[in-house]
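Propose amino acids for all 261 sites.
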């Protein structure tokens, strides 16, 4: 991770301070930089992040899978074939600024095409965003007991709502590329478990590349704990499968979900 704090350390004087502030504000406005307000017992420290400059990856991040009680992984698949260049770092920048509203008190860990946020009062939830050529994947994983379940459900809904709002906004910004939009998908378990399905790019039946997975779009907001999917690529018994906890991204067991502006 590359964390740059006090970028203009060697600049002094009020004129330079004003210049520094306006340059940073402009970079923040255009999503090249994100400020994270880190609250200590009696002071607030500001850390600066430059998501677009990150080159180091973290292989463990790509292996993270939600456990049974967590919402299943959610995938934003970009319909015209690729995630527009620069969209992911801008999304991450905005989330760094917005997530402190969601009890995110620790600064995030950023990698090349990956971001790891710790959410919840006790940092008991991991939120990982992974960007590949065609899609952005969300993994939400809890590490606490059942007492935290309700908080986690409500948090997952808020996280998804916030990310979708930001993605919508960014897609509009990229309108000059024409028709930038995405489908919300899940990865197809029928194809994943079928030994007959081979990834065409890598010629492997067990390819785990995010861009090779067969994705199935979610038709509407999901409220049921168990959702039935049909894979048109498969034939017979295993072409139907059910997925649990997709609804945890959409409905909360608490009566009210606060949608952030
Ligand atoms: Zn499939
Ligand atoms: Zn592959």
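Proposal:
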């Amino acid at each position: 991770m590359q964390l740059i704090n006090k970028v203009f350390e060697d600049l002094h004087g009020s004129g330079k301070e004003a210049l520094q502030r306006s340059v940073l504000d402009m970079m923040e406005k255009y999503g090249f930089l994100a400020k994270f307000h880190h609250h200590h017992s009696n002071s607030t420290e500001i850390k600066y992040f430059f998501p677009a400059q990150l080159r180091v990856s973290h292989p463990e991040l790509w292996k993270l899978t939600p456990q049974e009680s967590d919402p299943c992984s959610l995938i934003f698949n970009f319909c015209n074939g690729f995630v527009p260049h620069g969209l992911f770092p801008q999304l991450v920048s905005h989330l760094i600024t917005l997530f402190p509203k969601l009890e995110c008190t620790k600064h995030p860990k950023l990698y090349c095409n990956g971001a790891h946020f710790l959410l919840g009062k006790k940092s008991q939830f991991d939120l990982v965003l992974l960007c590949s050529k065609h899609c952005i994947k969300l993994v939400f994983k809890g590490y606490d007991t059942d007492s935290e379940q309700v908080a986690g459900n409500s948090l997952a809904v808020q996280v998804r709502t916030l990310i979708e709002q930001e993605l919508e906004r960014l897609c509009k910004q990229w309108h000059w590329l024409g028709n930038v939009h995405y489908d919300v998908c899940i990865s197809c378990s029928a194809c994943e478990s079928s030994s007959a399905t081979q990834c065409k790019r890598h010629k492997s039946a067990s390819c785990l590349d995010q861009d090779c997975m067969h994705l199935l779009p979610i038709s509407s907001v999901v409220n049921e704990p168990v959702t039935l999917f049909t894979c048109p690529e498969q034939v017979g018994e295993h072409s139907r499968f059910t997925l649990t906890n997709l609804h945890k991204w959409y409905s909360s067991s608490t009566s009210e979900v606060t949608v952030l502006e």
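Residues 182-247 form one domain. The longest strand covers residues 135-142.
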